[in-house]
Design a protein that fits this description.
With 141 residues, the protein is of the alpha+beta class. It is built from two helices and seven strands. It has helices at 16-26, 111-130; strands spanning 38-44, 58-65, 68-80, 87-95, 100-103, 107-108, 135-140. A seven-stranded antiparallel β-sheet has the order 6-5-4-3-2-1-7, with helices on one face.
């Protein structure tokens, strides 16, 4: 599946390699892109746990715009708490459409800091993806 992105609509600087990674994640899906209004891609590392740590789960949601697909949000999750009480919670949350960005422990981020953090996050995410850490599921409506 090839997904046309609305390139002028990114609130944060999305690097081409991330778009390529999303295209690759969508190649094995049987979803009918023409009928969908939103896509959710979940990237999970089967070995990530509260005890051992590891590569954080990531969820990316795209929505259909008039001129292509737009990023709705990118959320990076991590376990918070100890032992049996540990829960997956948002560690990084980049909300493209409303321009609100959040870092756990810091709270809302100004745009300049969010842009810098998102750029660093993309490079780390892509390195883990290229090393095969993630299993990917795609859903859509």
């Amino acid at each position: 599946m090839t997904i046309p992105f609305f390139r002028d609509g990114f609130a944060l600087p999305v690097i081409p390699a991330l778009l390529t990674q999303l295209h690759q994640a969508l190649t094995n899906t049987t979803l009918d892109q023409e009928r969908l209004t939103q896509l959710t891609l979940n990237f999970r590392s089967p070995t990530y746990s509260p005890e051992q740590g590891g590569v954080h789960p990531v969820e990316i949601r795209l929505i259909r715009g008039l001129d292509g697909w737009l990023f709705d949000y990118v959320t990076d999750f991590s376990y918070q708490g100890l032992g049996q009480d540990a829960e997956l919670d948002k560690e990084l949350d980049f909300n493209f459409l409303d321009g609100e960005h959040y870092l756990q422990g810091w709270g809302p981020l100004p745009t300049a800091e969010a842009q810098e953090l998102f750029n660093m996050w993309q490079n780390s995410f892509l390195a883990y993806a290229q090393l095969g850490f993630f299993t990917v599921t795609v859903s859509g409506d």
